[in-house]
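We include the pair:
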Amino acid sequence: MGGTDCSPVTGYIDPNWPRPGSSDYVCIIIVGYIPSFGLEVTAVALFTLALGLHLWFQLWYRPWFFSTVPVGTVMEIVGYVFRILASKLNPYAVSYFVGQYFCIAVAPVSYLAAIYAFLSVMITRAGHKYAPAPPRFILWTFSVCDIIATVVQVLVLASSAPRTPMEKTPTAQITSYWGTFIYKAQNALGPRLRVFAIATFIATVAMYVRTIIRLVETAEGLLKFLSTHEAIFACLEFLPILAAVFMFIVFHPGKCLAPARTAGKERDPFLPLSNT
């Protein structure tokens, strides 16, 4: 739509922000509002703080299975930087919309991969008999399914064609797995590991809330109610992910699965506690 006749158009146009004529811009503001500069700066600041803490824990505890969390946090930062650019430079820019949507939509895949890996480690520590599925099956199957589901979500929304996602999401299934595992293994885990498992379960629920709103948004399509109200974005996208990321800091798995520097040797997280 950039550089073409924009009348008539359906969508939000800011009366105080005229459209430029560059080919990188469209006739409407795709998100349906001017992104809040304050919200986006707050998001960048908080996710940057979280990134620094996660990198520190990653270097100190060396939990390889949690290494995707910093990757996802970097994507969150980049996504909100694109929203800052849209807020201050031009909200009609296609590149800013694509950049922020892709990064913010895909970043949670990295967090969920870490959750799948942590659940796999916890199952190995407590015992396979408490798990609804083998640990490596959980790790690889759910990671692949989550990537596929996210790619489909992005492609469907990009096509602007409403869809009704009827299938179960990997996030819903892993939430169920966490709850089942905690219930069955509560005595085997002990009080310390149980607290960390419950905290991760809460973080998973927060991500599930975010997943639900993304699925409904995908079903509606672009330029509809959910995708054009920043209050919904802030409460059901930004806050759940931020809460999960900081939950991972307070209850970082490295704190409960023993530092890798014990006795100067790397510890294999897939070994049971009795072997370390």
